[in-house]
Amino acid sequence: MDSEDKIAALREMLDEDPVDHLGWYMLGRELIRAGRHAEAAEALERIIPLDENYTAAYRELGVAYEKSGQLDKAKKIYQRGIDVAEKTRDLQTQKEMRVFLKRVKKKEG
What we know:
Elements: H1 3-16, H2 21-33, H3 37-45, H4 47-50, H5 55-67, H6 71-88, H7 91-108
Helix pairs in contact: 1-2, 2-3, 2-5, 3-5, 5-6, 5-7, 6-7
Protein backbone atom coordinates (compact mmCIF):
# COMPACT_ATOMS: atom_id res chain seq x y z
CA MET A 1 0.00 0.00 0.00
CA ASP A 2 1.51 3.34 -0.99
CA SER A 3 1.34 6.53 1.03
CA GLU A 4 -1.70 7.93 -0.77
CA ASP A 5 -3.60 4.68 -0.22
CA LYS A 6 -2.74 4.76 3.48
CA ILE A 7 -3.86 8.38 3.74
CA ALA A 8 -7.15 7.58 2.01
CA ALA A 9 -7.76 4.56 4.25
CA LEU A 10 -7.02 6.58 7.39
CA ARG A 11 -9.34 9.39 6.28
CA GLU A 12 -12.09 6.85 5.65
CA MET A 13 -11.55 5.33 9.08
CA LEU A 14 -11.67 8.79 10.70
CA ASP A 15 -14.89 9.64 8.88
CA GLU A 16 -16.43 6.73 10.78
CA ASP A 17 -14.72 7.53 14.11
CA PRO A 18 -13.65 11.20 14.28
CA VAL A 19 -12.61 10.95 17.93
CA ASP A 20 -9.97 8.27 17.34
CA HIS A 21 -6.87 10.12 18.51
CA LEU A 22 -4.58 7.29 17.39
CA GLY A 23 -6.10 7.48 13.90
CA TRP A 24 -5.41 11.22 13.72
CA TYR A 25 -1.86 10.56 14.90
CA MET A 26 -1.30 7.92 12.23
CA LEU A 27 -2.77 10.21 9.56
CA GLY A 28 -0.57 13.09 10.67
CA ARG A 29 2.56 10.95 10.55
CA GLU A 30 1.69 9.62 7.10
CA LEU A 31 1.04 13.15 5.82
CA ILE A 32 4.43 14.26 7.17
CA ARG A 33 6.06 11.35 5.32
CA ALA A 34 4.25 12.46 2.17
CA GLY A 35 5.59 16.01 2.58
CA ARG A 36 2.11 17.41 3.18
CA HIS A 37 3.03 19.32 6.32
CA ALA A 38 0.13 21.77 6.53
CA GLU A 39 -2.37 18.92 6.22
CA ALA A 40 -0.40 16.96 8.80
CA ALA A 41 -0.65 19.88 11.22
CA GLU A 42 -4.42 20.02 10.72
CA ALA A 43 -4.74 16.31 11.51
CA LEU A 44 -2.43 16.44 14.52
CA GLU A 45 -4.18 19.52 15.93
CA ARG A 46 -7.31 17.36 16.29
CA ILE A 47 -5.62 15.13 18.88
CA ILE A 48 -4.91 17.55 21.71
CA PRO A 49 -8.58 18.37 22.49
CA LEU A 50 -9.23 14.60 22.53
CA ASP A 51 -6.25 13.72 24.75
CA GLU A 52 -4.21 16.61 26.09
CA ASN A 53 -1.66 14.21 27.63
CA TYR A 54 -0.75 12.48 24.35
CA THR A 55 2.83 13.73 24.27
CA ALA A 56 3.74 12.19 20.92
CA ALA A 57 1.04 14.36 19.33
CA TYR A 58 2.83 17.51 20.50
CA ARG A 59 6.12 16.21 19.12
CA GLU A 60 4.69 15.39 15.68
CA LEU A 61 2.63 18.60 15.55
CA GLY A 62 5.80 20.54 16.25
CA VAL A 63 7.54 18.69 13.42
CA ALA A 64 4.66 19.49 11.05
CA TYR A 65 4.74 23.18 12.01
CA GLU A 66 8.52 23.29 11.71
CA LYS A 67 8.56 21.65 8.28
CA SER A 68 5.84 23.99 7.04
CA GLY A 69 7.89 27.01 8.14
CA GLN A 70 5.68 27.95 11.10
CA LEU A 71 8.55 28.27 13.54
CA ASP A 72 6.69 30.29 16.18
CA LYS A 73 3.95 27.68 16.35
CA ALA A 74 6.56 24.92 16.44
CA LYS A 75 8.34 26.53 19.40
CA LYS A 76 5.10 27.00 21.31
CA ILE A 77 3.85 23.46 20.76
CA TYR A 78 7.23 21.91 21.58
CA GLN A 79 7.33 23.89 24.84
CA ARG A 80 3.77 22.90 25.68
CA GLY A 81 4.64 19.29 24.88
CA ILE A 82 7.72 19.44 27.10
CA ASP A 83 5.54 20.66 29.97
CA VAL A 84 2.99 17.89 29.40
CA ALA A 85 5.73 15.27 29.11
CA GLU A 86 7.18 16.42 32.41
CA LYS A 87 3.76 16.12 34.05
CA THR A 88 3.14 12.65 32.55
CA ARG A 89 6.74 11.50 33.14
CA ASP A 90 7.29 10.76 29.42
CA LEU A 91 10.99 11.48 29.63
CA GLN A 92 11.97 10.16 26.19
CA THR A 93 9.47 12.31 24.31
CA GLN A 94 10.37 15.25 26.50
CA LYS A 95 14.05 14.81 25.64
CA GLU A 96 13.26 14.63 21.91
CA MET A 97 11.17 17.80 22.04
CA ARG A 98 13.92 19.66 23.89
CA VAL A 99 16.31 18.80 21.04
CA PHE A 100 13.72 19.84 18.45
CA LEU A 101 13.06 23.12 20.29
CA LYS A 102 16.77 23.94 20.26
CA ARG A 103 16.88 23.19 16.53
CA VAL A 104 14.00 25.62 15.86
CA LYS A 105 15.65 28.33 17.91
CA LYS A 106 18.87 27.89 15.90
CA LYS A 107 16.92 28.21 12.64
CA GLU A 108 15.62 31.56 13.81
CA GLY A 109 19.15 32.76 14.37
